[in-house]
Design goal:
Strands 1-2-3-4-5-6-7-8 form an eight-stranded parallel barrel, surrounded by eight helices. It has helices spanning 20-33, 50-56, 83-89, 99-105, 109-122, 134-138, 142-154, 185-203, 220-227, 244-252, and strands spanning 9-13, 40-44, 62-66, 93-96, 125-130, 167-171, 211-215, 234-237. It is of the alpha/beta class and 256 residues long. The chain is built from ten helices and eight strands. It starts with 8 loop residues before the first strand and ends with a helix. 1,3-dihydroxyacetonephosphate binds at residues 13, 98, 172, 177-178, 215-218, 236-240.
Length: 256
């Protein structure tokens, strides 16, 4: 995949939100109201809704993903879900290493790397989340943190290959998630350019075609300017993905 093939991706991370009735209605509205032609659209509902939503949006251009998976394929892991189970439920993608999982469940970058291998083995496209805390940003460590997270999460084990086709990176400054605050457009541009050039040291030619999403307080009002930044190939949207109108407006701002 070359940089010319980087079709924008707008993904909605519903987090722990959505019961059957409202979740299905929201997914249906997204499928019906999404601008066409447009970016690739992904909905990541809670695990309980993956299968129902995959069935509900079947035949539309909307794809469905999980929010996490376990590194093992099966076994004694109470409460966990394997990548294969997500595929079985109709998912094509999985979010890995979201800062809320790092925070709530103590996930580390090496954990993400193990999950990444499992996701790829099952045939899922993984969206690997990275991002700095406010303290790290204030200390001027943002780019170093991003490099360290990328290196520890992506460095392939054995013959496992990370490619532009099987992996997407989401840059989500932790302090921008759910706060209504975003970095300046310049800062987002610097971070994304850094991610792209650091990726080149890890995965060589695949770096040019890999999609880099921005996440953290993306709203209809700021989507156009964020998505216009070079090396921003889409968005990972939290709160605003819970309203079909807002999510579709963000998608409409992503030009191919
Ligand atoms: P918000 O869009 O609510 O800030 O959430 C971003 C996010 O964490 C997406 O994964």
């Amino acid at each position: 995949m070359s940089e010319h093939d980087r079709r924008p991706l707008v993904a909605g991370n519903w987090k722990m939100n959505g019961l059957q009735q409202d979740g299905l209605a929201l997914a249906r509205a997204v499928a019906n109201e999404m601008p066409k032609p447009g970016p690739e659209i992904l909905i990541c509902p809670p695990a309980t809704l993956v299968n129902a939503i995959a069935q509900c949006v079947e035949g539309s251009s909307v794809l469905v993903g999980g929010q996490d998976c376990h590194p093992a394929t099966s076994g004694a892991h109470t409460g966990d879900i394997s990548a294969e189970m997500l595929v079985d439920a109709g998912a094509t993608h999985v979010i890995l290493g979201h800062s809320e999982r790092r925070q709530d469940h103590g996930e580390t970058s090496p954990d993400i790397r193990a999950k990444l291998t499992a996701a790829h083995d099952a045939g899922l496209v993984a969206i690997v989340c990275i991002g700095e805390t406010l303290a790290e940003r204030d200390a001027g460590q943002t780019l170093d943190i991003l490099s360290a997270q990328l290196e520890a999460s992506l460095t392939p084990a054995g013959d496992h290959r990370v490619t532009a086709g099987n992996t997407v990176i989401a840059y989500e400054p932790i302090w921008a998630i759910g706060t209504g605050r975003t970095p300046s457009l310049d800062d987002v541009g610097v971070a994304h350019a850094h991610i792209r050039s650091f990726l080149a040291t890890l995965i060589a030619a695949e770096a040019g075609g890999m999609r880099l999403l921005y996440g953290g307080s993306v709203k209809p009002g700021n989507a156009e300017e964020l998505l216009a930044i070079a090396d921003v190939d889409g968005a990972l949207v939290g709160g605003a993905s819970l309203q079909a109108e807002d999510f579709c407006a963000i998608a409409a701002a992503a030009h191919s």
